[in-house]
Design goal:
With 508 residues, the protein is α+β, with helices and mostly antiparallel strands. The chain folds into 3 domains: 31-132, Immunoglobulin-like; 138-263, no CATH class; 279-506. Helix content is 24%, strand content 26%. An 8-stranded mixed sheet has the order 5-1-2-3-10-9-6-7, with no helix packed on it. The chain has a 7-stranded mixed β-barrel with strand order 11-12-13-14-15-17-16. A 5-stranded antiparallel sheet has the order 19-20-18-21-22. α1 crosses α9. The longest helix is centred in the C-terminal third of the chain and has 24 residues, at 483-506. The relative contact order is 0.12.
Amino acid sequence: MNFKYLSVFTALIFLLAACGSSEEKLEPTVEPILEPVGNTELTQFSFLQSYNPNLNDDVTSSINSSVVSARITTNVPVNNLVATFSHGGAEVTINGVAQTSNVTSNDFSQLVTYQVATTDGQVAQYQVDLIQFTGLPVISIAIENWAEITSKDDYVNGTVSIDGGREFTDMPDTSMKIRGRGNSTWGHPKKPYQMKLSDKSEFLGMPSKKKWLFIAEYSDKTLLRNTIAFEMGYISLLDWTPKSTFAEVYLNNSYNGTYNITEKVEEGDQRVAIGDTGYLLEIDQPERLDPDDISFRTDNFLLNIKSPDVVQDSSEYNYIKDYINAFENVLMGAQFKDSVNGYQKYINVDSFIDWYLISEITKNVDSKFFSSIYLNLIPGEKINMGPLWDFDLSFGNVDYADSQYAEGFWVKDHPWYSRLFQDPAFVAKIKTRFAYFKQNQQFILDKIDNHAKNLQWAQQENDDKWHTIGMYVWPNPVVFDTYEEEVYHLKSWYIERMNWLHTAYSNM
């Protein structure tokens, strides 16, 4: 373990205790129904392999008051299991149906309530909470001819299905095609993917679309940084922030780990709504462009036109190129502060502020100038910053830049923002808006804890597959031996960052 942050951890330990430690044992939160009385105790509950041939081992449970908790550690169906149980009553029923130990089968994919009754009318209820594998939905992808996914350019065909578990709708086998994606992330052993369904469809509760992204989160051992940045986006004034959810992914019947399944940043009514005439742009780098990408330059940036498809030097191309350059020229001009003809004529200031603050709070390394900086414009309206994207190297998760440290500005040095900060009116709005995010600091800390709890089993299975915990993965600045320590470090860094920014903005 790198002890560079030992003094930070010591100083923050009491504050974090108040915020809720990620190191606490994560227990089910199912509420009991009726407390056992008299002879209504359920004294033992299990699923034995001898009565359930699809199980690899016997599954025992813990009984805490009226909650029976158990977990099947392998990904096997739980919709037809026979329970073994002991009790002190005269009869056990589920919804009025008599239950016999070692005989009666039930569907345990949802919570199941057992009722234990005595001959003299005493009754107690027990809620059986059986976790299937990790508790996350399971996505199964089968490639034609059991081929591998080896290209970021060429799709391979196959089918996808979803076992939604308790939270999501199942999806039967559906035709799709899939390819690799990402830049530096494609170089990791655990690959990210882009999937395209044959028809638009809801996917894990997210609005219907064809394209879905499988984010590997390989270098982010908490698996949480993108998700927490999105949580900030959901409470912001940004028009749209991608929805996402975690799932277990199988490729050709082989477990491939826990993935963050997200909406793709693309034009569409359910995504970046730019209508028939709008533009979705990304600030990017020349070496990251595809041969068919259409881009243009300003004095400070290269901008890739992501949508729509335009022809070089067409009227549409020249419109967006001229508009962005006009904004930048005015921003860098002598009258940039003018409320009528200055930068405010060109941009939605609220979107610029919220995108900046989320990027600065998380100190996202690429948001300073490099890539995944999205903006959009509908002719006749103003430039909007966003949506948020690519935050796996945020919250200090980088060892090659000063964004590693919780102290210091980072995105403020983005050429556009550096100029905007020279306007006292803009600074005043930043300070006011930061106070809003500061007020929601505990909300974000709670989100970290809740998501970490949701991943309590998944992170173990993912690490059993990829063996990243306790190992250096580019570009980690620190290495910890447990998932809990990784989450603790994320929270520590975030708290220290918010405190530093609070002081820095207050002194402006």
